[in-house]
Amino acid sequence: MQKFTFHCPTEVIFGKDSENCTADLIKKYNGHNVLIVFGGGSIKRTGLLDKIITQLKEASLFVSTLGGVQPNPLVSFVNNGVKKALAQNIDFVLAIGGGSVIDTAKAIAHGLQYPTHDIWDIWTKKVKLEKTTPFGSIVTLAAAGSETSDSSVLTNEQTKQKRGLSTPFNRPRFAIMNPELTFTAPKVQKACGCADILMHTLERYFAKEQDNYMTDYIAEGLMKDVIYYAPKMLENPQDYLSHSEIMYCGSLSHNDITGLGRTKDFSVHKFGHELSAKFDATHGASLTTMWASWARYVYKHDVERFCHLGKVLFDISETGEDGAIKTINTLEEFFYRLGLPICISQLTGKILDETELKYLTDMCTDNNSKAIGTFNPLNYEDVYTIFK
Ligand code: NZQ
Ligand code: ZN
Q1: Which of 261, 175, 266 is nearest to 218 (CA)?
Q2: Which residues are near ligand 2, the ion (C-beta closer than 5 Å)?
């Protein structure tokens, strides 16, 4: 096990009716003027937005709203949100939604502290982030894990880049997780969420470091749980047990605990972000599109690790290359059974031409200036071949 520091200060309030303590929590973290950030309207339709506004007003909090965050959230939306928040002296940002809404809220909270800068300057590290405004979330989709992660992902519509920013300032003050609030999410979003949750642990599971058993047990337990409960959740949109298991996994999978003591890889996320930036693809689907192609390209780097994963998750007894390939095929089939794409033509509806493949490779490697991942670092040719 390698050296690590783990600090996840987010207060997690999990379970039925947990959103009823939102006002108390905001006050606990010194919020007075609250900006509620939300997406395309699902929380209006379910009545959650009205319920929270009423609760906050009854607690004498000032409330303003900012709706319209789109999946794969945009930098321009954040910049406009910062302007609105500044004009209203906002001192607490409350996200109600999935990863896109939470990531937008994080960025607005940072932007409030840097009013003269374009938020992208922080994402590209031209401006060093050294402070933020308190923010918290009410989660409505188990997926990205942004509710406890140190990350936020934005798309710059001008440069066509989708980039994450990892910083301790991205850890929210609180995360309210009521599994019932996820019941209404579309089936495809739930499936994408399950894939993303698995992938956040898989991207940490394949690492260059060996001998890290406690972290392995946590990671394997989480992946087994997702594989067992994901189909049940998709079949039963009102089933509390499966929704709660997946929701807990979603947060745990990306708060770092499933990868402590080793380096992260995250190549598949890099590929996926380029597909999302170019084709506006849903995040989880972009990952299932690429995972098996990545795995088939790199498995020889650590055949035993792939076999071990297959044994743990699917009771695959074969060893050597046969075991590794069977593991990859079985996980790919699992994604397919969730209704998700497993190749680019399924994701985009077309076979990409040479120009598009080169464009994706250029974007992914920052014009051939860096390698991707740590498990088996990938150069320009590797990335191109995997996309192809
Ligand atoms: O916008 P609304 O109307 O709310 O609808 C959303 C949206 O259309 C809908 N939805 C969510 N909860 C619902 C619901 N509809 C009905 N009932 C509910 N209870 O679902 C759609 C997708 O929402 P979105 O927030 O985009 O999904 P997700 O949570 O998967 O977030 C994806 C974003 O997070 C980023 C992704 O790249 C992507 O931009 N990620 C963020 C990470 C982080 N901050 O740590 C890590 C991840 O790897 C990921 O990159
Ligand atoms: Zn992800």
Answers
A1: 261
A2: 196
